[in-house]
Design a protein that fits this description.
Elements (H helix, E strand, L loop, with lengths): L1 E2 L2 H12 L7 E6 L5 H11 L14 E8 L2 E9 L6 H6 L11 E6 L13 E7 L5 E6 L2
Parallel strand pairs: 2-5, 2-6, 4-5
Antiparallel strand pairs: 1-7, 3-4, 6-7
Helix pairs in contact: 1-2
Length: about 140
Amino acid sequence: MITKDREATIESGHQFAKTLKGGEVIGLIGELGSGKTTFVKGLAEGLHINETITSPTFVILKVYPSKIERKKIEFVHIDAYRVETIDDIRSVGIEDFLGRDDTIIVVEWAEKIKEVLSKKTKYIHFKYKDPDSREITMSKR
């Protein structure tokens, strides 16, 4: 998919949120400025999260309460950009959320922590095309 502006990238995240049931791990891969955080904003919007979403670059992990239909879930937003070792990501408690059906985990810079993510992780790749356009593709790795 090619998004032509920021709003379209947000809308793609919003639409993707409608496919989620809980228990998913979503890994986002792409260079700086390729649209990962913008997509997460739409994802959170689609999950009815009203808080302002910013990338947790320095705290690494943020948790937002949400609901899918009547089911309470936790939306876990991880930014692995500053993670240097797997112990760094373990120290913030990622393993407390993995494998639970009452969480949706989205990881920016997921390629840095693939070894701790589920084999069922859905990967979304972001490519900067020009100042307005982004190419977004999904894969299993």
